[in-house]
Specification:
It is a single chain. With about 575 residues, this protein is of the alpha/beta class. The protein is built from 16 helices and 22 strands. Strands 16-15-17-18-14-19-20-21-22 form a nine-stranded mixed β-sheet, with helices on both faces. It has a five-stranded mixed β-sheet with strand order 10-9-11-12-13. Strands 1-2-3-4 form a four-stranded antiparallel β-sheet. It is globular and about 90 Å long.
């Protein structure tokens, strides 16, 4: 932990004499170099006992934190027997399922006895290993009763055999061993089986094993999903495709008679089983299909099943503007008219009312600055001193704990990121943290990297296509803030509200967006107009219109003043 916190603080220019939990003081990386007393320790740093830290400068008021994203776990590690029992009865049981003694021994399975309630029963043990070390043991009786090491770390069964860029997901340990028997050793299964239905919840404990195995999954580019053909198996397949992204998923299918890999091995043998995996088809994302392929999706939409537009929870806005998961939103407005501020209220409200998590790429704001803006929206108090009571240091500490759970700051210190780099980090954040939204604010901070002879219009069209593909494959909603081209003042010296066609670079911002917002401040009347100028699906996702808000400075939020 000590080395980790040292490196994370160093990224912010903060260096301490020691890194033990407690209070520390040092020089401020923001202001000390510009002051006469350069060695004045004006920065207070508090390191907690879980690998996180917060700081505040008593001279320039710079604040920030490096959070402990995940509390350290005290996993219970199982102790495997030095001489595991491997009876003839056990080998015969596996043989009846088409699995040889050699495969059983290679996987380390053994016979044992475990208590199921008050009854002690004979069972087969399936050791789970991670980096060669046992981390869990799953036990199975002849009548399919299961249990695991209590308090063990959840990992994927057989994950250590995934060494390349391809992985096969099946539904249980016996299916993993069946594929092993057929020569496919890169198959894995989740320890807790398949869900009854797909809910796509980022906090679903069933998929904790994916997060714990993330270092081994980052290099995977092809995911073959060969779960059971029944409803739970299909639900598991949908959950896995949602988490990995449909663009890198393939589907291995079983018929109703042989509903899983082990059944195929028993009925048809190794070659047929191996061919079933080799013949897996790309997940249907792009291409040509018959409409009957989407019959169930049409009925789901009709009956309100599956992803639905979300009412954000902002008074006055909800009837005009809803958020459909997996859509692309463009936000524009004249600089300093409040478009970022209004978008921050949208994301914070989605976090508070619906539990959403967000990736944030906002290079115009330092992480500490962006955190202060989010704190204002969450605590409903000013961060800085002024006419209204500001938040206290204790409230900041408590508020940061909430912000840390729902917002993840994406940044690069050594280069201007491309859209590909940003979406790659967002994809990993989707898998590890379960983000449902991504904010890119603003567009002009993305590395253009245009090809020779490529116009800006062509570049913008390609960039939006990449974002929308990311939206579809990961069911993540993306907001991009883009400035309008230079606006001319009218005869009264006022700048009129722009439209989506005014955005600098290309008309594609309007043409290809699913939803479009324009934020425009009337400084004389002290109001802010929000125009919903593009709604792809009316009325399901809302409707076009214009609303007026006023900014409550005491609570740092926009409140409606009418719609027309």
């Amino acid at each position: 932990m000590t080395r980790d916190i040292r490196e994370r603080l160093a990224e912010h220019g903060i260096r301490l004499k020691d890194y033990a939990a407690g209070e520390h003081v040092t020089t401020c990386p923001e202001c000390s170099h510009a002051r006469k007393k350069k060695t004045d320790p004006c920065l207070s740093v508090k390191i907690d006992g879980e690998g996180g830290a917060t700081w505040i400068c008593h001279h320039c008021d710079m604040t920030g934190n490096v959070p402990c994203f995940e509390k350290p776990h005290k996993w219970k590690r199982p102790t495997l027997p030095e001489k595991p029992k491997k009876s003839d009865a056990m080998y015969d049981w596996f043989k009846g399922r088409g699995i040889s003694r050699e495969t059983v021994d290679a996987a380390g399975c053994y016979a044992t006895e475990e208590y199921y309630g008050s009854d002690k029963k004979s069972c087969v043990a399936f050791p789970y290993r991670l980096d060669g070390k046992p981390v869990n043991v799953k036990y199975r009786t002849r009548d399919k009763q299961f249990k695991q090491t209590q308090g063990a770390q959840r990992t994927l069964y057989n994950i250590d055999n995934v060494t390349g860029d391809e992985i096969v997901f099946v539904e249980g340990e016996m299916d993993v061993l069946a594929l092993w028997e057929a020569g496919i050793k890169n198959a894995v299964s989740l320890p807790d089986g398949a869900p009854k239905e797909a809910k796509f919840r980022d906090d679903d404990k069933r998929f904790e094993a994916l997060r714990n195995c993330l270092p081994k999954l980052e290099g995977v580019t092809k995911v073959i999903i060969a779960t059971d053909s029944d409803e739970p198996g299909q639900a598991l397949a949908a959950e896995l495709a949602h988490r990995f992204g449909k663009d890198r998923c393939w589907r291995g299918m079983w018929d109703e008679a042989t509903k899983d890999a082990n059944a195929v091995l028993k009925a048809w043998g190794k070659e047929t089983l191996k061919a079933s995996i080799e013949d897996a088809e790309p997940w249907p994302i792009d291409g040509v299909y018959r409409f009957e392929d989407f019959g169930s999706a049409v009925l789901d939409m009709y009956h309100g099943r599956g992803p639905q537009p979300v009412r954000i929870g902002i008074d006055g806005l909800d009837d005009f503007y809803k958020v459909m998961p997996g859509t692309f939103h463009i936000v524009t407005g004249i600089p300093n008219h409040g478009k970022s501020n209004f978008l921050e209220q949208i994301t914070m409200t989605l976090a508070e009312k619906h539990g959403w998590k967000f990736g944030i790429f906002s290079p115009e704001h330092k992480p500490a600055q962006y955190a202060s803006r989010l704190l204002e929206k969450h605590l409903k108090k000013p961060f800085y001193d002024g006419p209204n009571p500001r938040m206290t240091p204790e409230e900041i500490t408590s508020g940061l704990e909430y912000v840390n759970r729902h917002f993840y700051y994406i940044t690069s210190n050594d280069h201007t990121p491309t859209i590909d780099w940003i979406l790659e980090k967002a994809q990993l954040s989707c898998l590890k943290y379960g983000i449902k939204g991504l904010v890119i604010d603003p567009y002009n901070e993305i590395e253009a990297g245009r090809k020779k002879n490529q116009t800006e219009t062509e570049f913008v069209s390609q960039l939006i296509s990449k974002i929308k593909r990311f939206c579809r494959t990961h069911d993540v909603t993306v907001w991009v803030v883009a400035h309008p081209a230079k606006m001319h003042r009218d005869q009264n010296g006022d700048q009129p509200m722009p439209d989506l066609y005014s955005i600098s670079g290309s008309a594609h911002w309007f043409n290809k967006a699913d939803m479009g917002l324009i934020v425009h401040r009337n400084f004389e009347e002290k109001t802010t107009a929000v125009a919903i100028s593009k709604v792809k699906e009316i009325p399901a996702w809302g409707c076009t219109g214009k609303l007026t808000f006023w900014f409550d400075g005491a609570h740092r939020v926009y409140k409606p003043s009418g719609a027309f």
